[in-house]
Amino acid sequence: MTFINKLLKDTTGFLLFCLFIFLFLFAEVLKNISLFNRIPNSFFNINTIFLSIILEAIPFILLGVFVSALIQSFVSENMIRKVLPRNAYLALIPAALLGIIFPICECAVVPVVRRLIKKGMPSHVGVVFMLSAPILNPVVYASTYFAFKSTPYIANARMFIGFISSIIIGLIIYRRFKGENILKPNQSGHHEHHHHHHTKRNKLLETLYHASDELFDTGKYLFIGAFLASLFQAFLDRNALLSIGTSTTFAPGVMMGLAYLLSVCSSADAFVASSFGSTFTEGSILAFLVFGPMIDIKNTLMLFGYFKKKFVLFLLIVTPLVVYFTVYFFQLFFL
Q1: Which of 8, 54, 165, 207 falls between 20 and 30 A from 46, CA-CA?
Q2: 3-class secondary-structure state, position 129
Q3: Which residues does UniProt assign to the signal peptide (predicted)?
Q4: Of the ranges 53-62, 155-164, 271-280, 293-302, which is most confident?
């Protein structure tokens, strides 16, 4: 069954990509054929949105899989143990701040964290890095600052809330899954054992092998997630959201849901968020900016592909709750 499921996912991802490339090239021709001219334009918009998500994410996916492959080839378990503080709680702080050094988005960080945990990084520390890195990095800070030029404190607030939220979630994960393996077994194991014998002979070749494995593993989840996100973007009625945009209680939750559905890359989501600035509260805008990079449709599928279902479901419950209450108290005292 595992082989059949993997084959179905691989085939679905490949067929989706082929279909949308075909539509991208021939959509205008199809519109002029009588059989297709009754199809609403929104269906053709799905294709445009899908490809824009893919093209936006691919550079970061490539970065992520190569970082992951380099970790597999060059980073040892002993190195990770030496770098991280021995205290489980103190280790959370440098993990949250790693994003400043490694500018990785939410698409690319999942395979990197999976590899780090395999190499011996404690699970809760890996989760903190996974949640904070897409927010606490220079690229995201710069894009947020420029998107909110009239209110530059939004960029600082985003960093602060992202840092605090990821630490709190890490603590909860530590208490719940202490000492437990949260990874699915035998992920990409068919190549890892074979490559291990060639480590000393050719590190570069080994890195390329691991990168290709990661790219195909991650790519199928990206394609399926991008397709689902493009469906929501094409058919979502944003006007229906505006009536509750000024509520300090409900607006953050609505914007978090919107961030999940739209699945915009963290390096560009600030410009999307700024378009809601005139109708939604600043607290809800911050909820959008913090929650979206942590959890969205794309990386949810990747999480289910790489981590145990029990852990992913727990993370999907805890993360929105922590972000919501962190934002709620922040806007209560500082906005």
Answers
A1: 8
A2: helix
A3: none
A4: 155-164
